[in-house]
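Notebook entry, structure prediction.
Reason for the run: the old model in the group folder had no record of what sequence produced it. Starting over properly, with the input documented here first.
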Amino acid sequence: MSWAALLALAALASQEKPQEASAPTAGQALALILQRVDEPDDAQLAVAAEELARVEEAYEPLLAALGSARAPDEEAAPLGARQLELVLAALERLGSSRLDAFVAQTARAPRSTADSCAALRILGAHGRASDLPTLLSLGRMAEERAAFGAAEAVFGDALFALLARAPEAHARLRERFASLGPETGSAALRASERTGSREALACVHALLGLRRGLDAAVLQALGNLAARAEPDERVALAESVVPYLSSAECAEVLAAAATLGRLGQPDTIPDLIEVLVSGERTLVRAALAALRVISGVSLPASAQAWRSWYGREETWRQERAPRVLATLAKLDGTESVGDLCAWLRELSEHPLHRDALAPQLTPLLGHPRAHVRVLVCECLQRLGSRLALGPLAESLQDESPEVVAAARGALLALGGEAVLAGRELAQPSE
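New structure, fully documented this time:
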């Protein structure tokens, strides 16, 4: 047989021989597992993490998936939050020291934005307060490479998780805030605010004035955290904010007015009145809104009207209020109902100083006469001070159904639904 015929037979034989299926790559194998556990519960996550970790040469594809938030195969399907937790759990099984080395190397010289995102997710999941400088460095370097937009959400979530887990890290954020770029600084500010903690309040307050370009955002964050401030802290906070009412930056004036409204300090009324004189419509609206919130009254946008009203309020506070409060403190059950109603009505007509008046009225919730206790509940409701929430909640245990109803109504009017719900849940089942 000729060589040509032999070659033809060999070619025919090779065509008839079935092709063996090629083995899946590590990325394909990992993607199949991830696809199978879309929203794993804790038990499924643990099992799947072990399965992922057993795939040969899984480390690099898993690391790429953690950074890109996509499956490590050709289709590159987006990964959900629980799937990312699964990827990280598998990586940890392959060696936490290896991850630590990766984070350290990436913080020194990131190879890509995906690597930076992977390092950020690792720090967000397990970082300690001492890791905060590394996390901030990753964000700052991404900003320097003009790549922060791709990493911003990951940076913010990671920093929020670390600050929520280690509140003491807020102190380190304060120390390094001035060195951050505008994008990283803004994202760090938002992450701190998101925690809603007392540490965040102290941190944000300390950031005011450190970066003039970010002061409007800092003022806004301070306003959002104002509810966390104790009554005696609000004075110092307000004193820090008032100077921004005369800022040349409109955004700072707007944010300062809104924050002062939330802090609710009567002493800031004159400063807000001055903003009404500016004539700038947007600023006037912001100052007017703050004035109405703080004062509890709805006057027009007239500086003269507000000055007249404030003068009358100050005169009443200094001359008349002490006498009325002294009279109420001496109640012994023999006073006439008419006089008592008049005194309480007079107090309720001056809501500007509600936070100073409420603590002096709440002891009357223990008065021996039930109708007096009802009148006090109604007066506290009209005053509108949330400092009365605790004493009013105690009155839900009053032996008088009328007092309980009045206390419940006052709690609802003062935004104490959570207090009321907690009390009702604590009641024993019948």
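Summary: The chain has two domains: 26-238, 319-423.
The old model has been moved to the deprecated folder.
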